[in-house]
Amino acid sequence: SAVDGYLHARWNAGFVDKLRSGTNARQSIANQLKRPGVSDDQARDLLFMDIAIDGDVRRLVEGGEHHDNSLWTHLALVQTAAESLALSEAELESATLLTNISRELTAVLQKLEYYGESEDVGLRAAASMNMARNSLTGIVDRYKRYIGSMSYCLGQAFHAEKHLVDIFVEESIRGSSAYALSMLLRKAEPHVRRVASLGPWTIIAPRDKPAHGEVRVFNHLRECMTEKFKKDTIIIANICDGDEDVPAHVAFVVIGSTVDVLSHVAVRARNEHHGLVGCMDAEEMERLRSYVGCVVSAKFEGENFVITLDDSVDLARVQSKTSSGNLVRLKSKGLVTHPSGLQTPPHMLVGERGRLGSMHSFGSFQELAPMKRSGSILSEVHLSAPWAIRPSEYNLDLVGSKSMNLGKLMALKLPSWIHIPTSVTIPNGVLKKVFRDPKNTAVKTEYSRLRTEIYKAKPTDVSLCPVLREVIMQLQMPDGFAAALRGVLDELECDNIDETLPHAWEAVKGVWASTWNERAHLARRKMNMYTEDVDMAVLCQKIVDADYAFVIHTNNPITGDRDEIYGEIVVGLGETLVSNAPGQALGFVVGKSDLENPSIKSYPSKQFALKGGKFIFRSDSNSEDLEGFAGAGLHDSIPLEPNRKVELDYSKEPLMLDDDLRKSIMVGVGKIGKIVEETMGGYPQDIEGCYKDGKFYVVQSRPQM
Prior knowledge:
Layout: H1 2-12, H2 15-34, H3 40-62, H4 71-89, H5 93-115, H6 119-158, H7 162-174, H8 177-195, E1 201-205, E2 211-220, E3 233-239, E4 250-255, H9 264-271, E5 275-279, H10 282-289, E6 295-301, E7 304-309, H11 312-321, H12 324-336, H13 380-384, H14 401-412, E8 418-419, E9 423-426, H15 430-436, H16 441-456, H17 465-473, H18 479-491, H19 497-513, H20 518-526, E10 536-542, E11 548-553, E12 564-571, H21 575-578, E13 586-591, E14 599-602, E15 608-611, E16 615-621, E17 638-639, E18 644-647, H22 654-657, H23 659-679, E19 685-692, E20 695-703
Parallel strand pairs: 2-3, 3-4, 4-5, 8-20
Antiparallel strand pairs: 1-5, 2-6, 6-7, 9-10, 10-16, 11-12, 11-19, 12-13, 13-14, 15-18, 16-17, 19-20
Helix pairs in contact: 1-2, 2-3, 2-4, 3-8, 4-5, 4-8, 5-6, 6-7, 6-8, 7-12, 16-17, 17-19, 18-19
């Protein structure tokens, strides 16, 4: 039997074969449990046998059994551990993710056997490792939720110190199947990065100026949003969800996970001149976290991030932290919540965007004067404008740069192989006209009262933001606007306008309401802008249910090279890319003079794709492209229907299997970047688009900040 095979391998086989035999034995036990007619006593015995084998395998991993230390062996061990953990997760969603990861690692191992330790194989292995880490994060977080609350209650009853309860929770997790995968990932990481020619650092947002400041350490970057920092602070954070802003006065942020170079958080960091760097080396992250509270010097040197202690007293304090008295606890924490890539999916992908919570001491906002404006001005050009306009009617008084640039691209005629989806825009000023409709008199009165209150409040007080959003969502649709919205849906080739109209109205209001997102309000206060200074048009488009989505920066945002295009591609819709969903995109660079030869920088490792939605209503404000303003992704774009989440199995994904397809898409994306930049007068462009059934589409373009 498989169990006998494991017992034999336990004493006679090599490390990989021992783990594989253990997984095979557990799979055999799982199959037995599914057979009809298994009695309760038999099921109990089988479960105890499964627990015993799983525990024995984990102890083998903990023992650090000797092997040849080759990349193949490390990947084979991770693949087997992922398959074993999938058995423990049983019917949970994480089991499917782990199974897909195991299949992809099997495909990587086959390529490794055929091509050897090439850089391309290393990059694909790195993508698989990313997926494994991100999947492990969700599992560990779930364990902590289940075990943690009960443990803290017991700890209070026993009057135990908090750090002892923390250690108990961590050690409980160490006794699970997840620990074996976590430990094997940590050991494999340096070998994968060596073969992939990847250093420990990934520069996301470059910063030329060195910094001299204090180190602050957080688990989530989001946690530091409530803090006020001294000038040139350096933040070390394990996780970045993708919708955060870097606080004022922070010079550098080091994230212990992957961050898409063209995600909104990365664009905002570059626009505000913060240094943002990813660190995928567990030991290096451990070293940086040990600097908490110390004053350091930090700077970029080429592709490296250099951080050094400035004070011998601080050095002695850091060394004391890693003395034998504290070593066990440090290692325990690191092994359970692996710092390089374990992250929770961003809340904004499913349901409402997450809120930032209390913001009572954010950046330098306390230095700004209180806002006093309480009126709303509707200009003559807005008052006389139609409820909705076509691209031929676009001008800067009526629409934002998203609509304007699409209109320009349509007018200047891109090559026939580059398509632009049908677009109609609800122009600036329509929200104010809706407020003026007699149906909305009471709503307008309440909105004006709340707006006056929030202007009187402290700059960091966001408590009224959700109330203001809710007031906007209470608006009733004026008759004239209803007719115009019907026309919009007809223009977008909607099949059932009567049924769709109420949902479209809710989506439009949702875009307007996002003017009062907490981050949007704080960003305006940071720039000392009034809400009335922000005009919000709504760009309405039919969604291309893409096979692949891409983002292009026609000026390499990492190196600043004007002759090099940087692109990122994901499976499905582009929201997983711009929102920095767990995992990486297919990243590549290509020279504008050599578009046929793109160079891959990362393979895709997103755990899921987004599909569907029918129509999308995009925020198109006049504030998103201001220099120094963190406008990228600040306001909401809302699909008519919620996007479907589709789990990805890269071992079956054409983008990974078909080298010719992958290259042709990268070449096409590069050509689009060059053509659009030339069409827009040679100015660097930030372009979003997609690929569907062999056709390329550009859905928006704006100046690259």
